[in-house]
Every structure is written in C-alpha cells, then in structure tokens.
C-alpha cells in the first residue's frame, strides 16, 4: 500500500533519503536489498566488540525473532534497512559489553537496587517533566543520553578520557537523530549530556523490548515476547544492567521512566519489590492522539508505507492493554509506594507536586531540591521546543471511541494526604 497524503506528513525526509529510497524497489526486485539477519548482525557485533563474548540465550533468540520481523513485516525502505542494520549492531555490541563485564567482575551481580523510583504513564501525560524534576534531587541516579547510548565504559572502569569520548558519541547521535527526524524536537527533545533519558534503550540492548514501543510494526516479535514463559525476563535483564551502571557510578536512588513499564507493571513490581511508583494520568484522548503521532513519526522514518488508520488501531490497543494492566497492578500499593498524579496538577504546581513526593516516599532530604527545581523550570519554559500538533482524526479515531475503550477502571484512589490524587 502506498503512503496516503496524510501519512506523508509524518514522513518529512530529506531529498537525499527520498532519492536513496527510490533505489529500494529495484534492488529488492533484483535480490540485492540488504537483509536484516540476526546471525549476521550478531557476528558483526562480536567483531566490533572485539572479545569472545556471547549473548544470553534469550537475548540471542530475541535478536533473531526481532530481526526476522524487521525483515519481513516492517515494510522497511532502503534507508530503513540500512538504519536498522546499523542500530541492531550497536545495540548488540552494547549488550556484549554488559555480558563481558559480568564475566570479569562477578561481584557486579551482588549489587542491590534499593527503592528505585519509576515514573509510568502513557506518553504526553507529564512523565518527562516529572522525571526531570525528580532528577533535580542531589541523590538521584539517572541515565543521561550519552550514558544510555554507550552504557559500559571501556575496560568497565570509567576514565575522564573515556567519558569525554562517550559524551562526544552521544552528541553525534543526537545530531544525527534530529537531522533525520527534525520533528522529534517537538515530541521528545533530547539533550546529550544533562537531561535524564528513558530506560527504554536498555531494553533494546537485551532485545527484550516490552510490547508496543518499538520503532516499526513488528507483530511476530511482540507475540513471541508476550508468550515467553517468564514474563519478568525483560525487567530481570534491566535489573542486571542497572547493577553494572550503579557499580560504575553510584547515587542514592534510581529515577527511571519509560512507557514500556505501563504494560508490564506487575512484572516490574515483582523484580523490584520495593520500587516507588509515580503514575501520571492525563485525559486519554490527549495521550492517545500524541502516541499516535509519535508512532507514525518513528515508523515513517524506516518505512515509506505507513497506514495511519493501522497506527490508530494499534495505539488504542496498546493504550487499553497498558491501562488495564496498570490498573490491576496498582490496587495493592499503599501511599508510601504509589503517587497518582494528574497532569493538570503537575502543570499547575510542578515544584510543589514533584518536591512533595520525596518526603512522601521516604528518601533522604535534599536541602537544595527546591532551588534546583526552580532553576530547571527557569531554563526549560514550556515554549522552549516546537509545538507538537496531533489530531485523533488523522488516525481514524474519535473522542467517543477512545473514551469508551479507556473508560475508568474504578480503582479506589490512594489515601489522601494533601497531594494531588486521581482515580483511574
């Protein structure tokens, strides 16, 4: 199916990329289009890594399933195939770095991840603002983009020279991403060195990315992941990665966020039994419309064949599943473990809302926290980045359908203590 006129609005590529993609069809017809092959990608990553290291068997299986889905289901353009190949090699190389570190320093796996703070919720519900405010705490350990782009220092032990090298690599990656997807600044602006980034990238390295938040339509891979005998596997692998990162550079507590956690919250709570959860809630119409726009934007980078109606149906399924799973998981968490925050309340009083959560959850006090949050808000006004426009109608959806599918689940609200509460 050719992209519709509306779909092309989410596919604003440079002339060079459009010309490159025109070569895709004749190359494919002649049998010369680049294949996405998991075994070849692993072999190239092992050569790039330079040490005799193996992936965990489940990650190796996930790589093969995911690569095959990219190759056969994602309708990749020629540019998309080249990008996917390169990024899968980078992801696997990063994970090989983790695996080698565990072999060299087995004491890493004895680290304890205590009272991690997870910010969850659908995109555009205030999760990014909440995370960045919570990371103003002096004890917050988070992942800036440069670190999550290449998590493991050379020789595992960081040095100023190696840190500068990884920072340069992070800056280059942000520049390349913004060049290819200029509209991303209006959806999720990324800075390489300072602001916290999502832990989604760590899931990508293990090839166990929970349902619904990949960069293409990969239904076979998502079914494989959903049918794993151990549904905690993605978060168990995440915990292993966090132990290494904590071993390299410590903080008082982790502050992490990603939309992937919403659909796997029971598993997260099983792997991190003392986790604190900040659940962000916004009118689902706004969240779904924004997630549709983001999904269409990311899929169109890799494909010239994006059906916006299919994007809408897919996103609504993901949102409904996330809402149902999250609702069930939150039932048994008390106010010392859970804060349910309305987007409108966060926007009205960001410093008061975010700052109050630290006392609520029992973390060490930071006397400078309010000042640090004020400095952050002054440096990041709401109009700092381009406005992100999105409309449900672009994706074959309407307000009534979204509200009916994402109706409240009737969960009792947490005990009121003066902090903003919402009912799901």
Overview of the molecule:
By secondary structure, this protein is mainly α. It has one domain: P-loop containing nucleotide triphosphate hydrolases (Rossmann fold, 3-Layer(aba) Sandwich). The protein is built from 20 helices and five strands. The protein has a five-stranded parallel beta sheet. Helix 5 (about 55-75) packs antiparallel against helix 6 (about 80-105) and helix 15 (about 285-300) crosses helix 16 (about 310-330).
Radius of gyration, CA atoms, in whole angstroms: 21 Å
Average pLDDT, all residues: 85
Give the full name of the CATH homologous superfamily.
P-loop containing nucleotide triphosphate hydrolases
Number of strands: 5
User: What is the H/E order?
Assistant: HHHHHHEHEHHHHHHEHEHHEHHHH
Number of helices: 20
Percentage of β-strand residues: 5-15%
């Amino acid at each position: 199916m050719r992209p519709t006129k509306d779909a092309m609005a989410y596919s604003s590529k440079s002339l060079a990329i459009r010309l490159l993609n025109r070569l895709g069809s004749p190359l494919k017809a002649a049998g010369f289009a680049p294949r996405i092959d998991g075994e070849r990608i692993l072999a190239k990553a092992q050569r790039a890594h330079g040490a005799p290291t193996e992936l965990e068997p489940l990650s190796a299986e996930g790589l093969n399933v995911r690569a095959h889905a990219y190759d056969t289901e994602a309708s990749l353009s020629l540019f998309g195939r080249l990008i996917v190949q390169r990024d899968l090699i980078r992801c696997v190389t990063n994970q090989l770095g983790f695996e080698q570190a565990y072999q060299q320093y087995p004491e890493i796996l004895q680290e304890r991840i205590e009272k991690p703070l997870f910010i969850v919720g659908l995109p555009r519900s205030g999760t990014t603002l909440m995370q960045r405010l919570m990371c103003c705490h002096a004890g917050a350990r988070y992942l800036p983009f440069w670190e999550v782009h290449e998590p493991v220092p050379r020789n595992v032990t960081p040095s100023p020279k190696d840190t500068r090298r990884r920072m340069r690599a992070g800056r280059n990656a942000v520049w390349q991403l913004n060049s290819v997807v200029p509209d991303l600044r209006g959806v999720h602006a990324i800075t390489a060195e300072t602001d916290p980034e999502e832990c989604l990238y760590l899931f990508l390295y293990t090839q166990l990315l929970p349902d619904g938040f990949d960069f293409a339509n990969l239904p076979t891979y998502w079914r494989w992941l959903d049918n794993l005998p151990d549904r905690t596997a993605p978060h168990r692998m995440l915990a292993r990665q966090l132990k290494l990162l904590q071993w390299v550079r410590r903080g008082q507590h982790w502050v992490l966020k990603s939309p992937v956690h919403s659909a796997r919250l029971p598993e997260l709570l099983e792997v991190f039994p003392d986790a604190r959860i900040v659940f962000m809630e916004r009118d689902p119409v706004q969240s779904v419309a924004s997630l549709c726009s983001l999904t269409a934007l990311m899929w169109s980078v890799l494909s010239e064949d994006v059906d916006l109606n299919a994007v809408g149906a897919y996103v609504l399924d993901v949102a409904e599943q996330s809402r149902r799973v999250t609702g069930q998981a939150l039932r048994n968490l008390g106010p010392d473990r859970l804060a349910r925050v309305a987007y409108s309340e966060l926007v009205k009083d960001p410093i008061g809302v975010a700052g109050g959560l630290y006392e609520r959850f029992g973390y060490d006090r930071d006397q400078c926290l309010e000042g640090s949050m004020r400095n952050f808000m002054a440096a990041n006004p709401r109009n700092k980045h381009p406005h992100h426009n999105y409309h449900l109608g672009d994706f074959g959806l309407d307000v009534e359908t979204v509200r009916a599918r994402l109706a409240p689940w009737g969960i009792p609200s947490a005990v009121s203590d003066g902090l903003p509460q919402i009912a799901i």
